[in-house]
Amino acid sequence: MFSDPTAAPGPLRPMARHLDRPTPVEALARLRAGNARFASGAGHPGAVPRGGAHRGPFAVVVGCIDARVPVETVFGQRAGAICVVRSAGHVLDRAVLGSVEFAVTDLQVSLVVVLGHDDCRAVAAAREAVRTGRRPAGARQYLIDQIVPAVPAGGSLDRATRSHTVRTVATLRQAGHLQEALAARRLDVAGAIYRLESGHVEML
Ligand SMILES: [Zn+2]
């Protein structure tokens, strides 16, 4: 059964939204608990009641577009609980980074999670580009070019995915507009890998 120890009963008051923010540690615990429910087959907590969420989101997840990784579902979160930004291979560009900054500064989320996953076709395409020296055409070239620097020579796809996820976390940690919240420990940035077979999210 879904339960949330920080849930605020009663009607939303304007200031309550700010007082209700979980710490980064609490936010991560919510996501881990939600993933444990999902991986155990306990099901999804369902949609938000009509009329909208009574609380703002507590985390933002940067994930891949892969249809096998429905982010709210694998973290066991109901609609309204987390923000999700997706691009192939969870590549950061200015729009993705701006979306993360928006979630942190305007929506006051406590946690950013970069979610890689098994069998990522975007990371596989970057490995192929490294192996062959050929780059794909069109805007895909931009995506692959962002992943290639993280791909270790001769390593496995899993190693490349981990490396790319860790590098994405490091890039976010350097983002100028997140520095104040990070320094004040109101925010943390974490990396994770979603395992397709087990349904578990493995924190890095
Ligand atoms: Zn992917």
From TrEMBL:
<dbReference type="InterPro" id="IPR001765">
    <property type="entry name" value="Carbonic_anhydrase"/>
</dbReference>
<dbReference type="Pfam" id="PF00484">
    <property type="entry name" value="Pro_CA"/>
</dbReference>
<comment type="similarity">
    <text>Belongs to the beta-class carbonic anhydrase family.</text>
</comment>
<comment type="function">
    <text>Catalyzes the reversible hydration of carbon dioxide to form bicarbonate.</text>
</comment>
<protein>
    <submittedName>
        <fullName>Carbonic anhydrase 2</fullName>
    </submittedName>
</protein>
<dbReference type="InterPro" id="IPR036874">
    <property type="entry name" value="Carbonic_anhydrase_sf"/>
</dbReference>
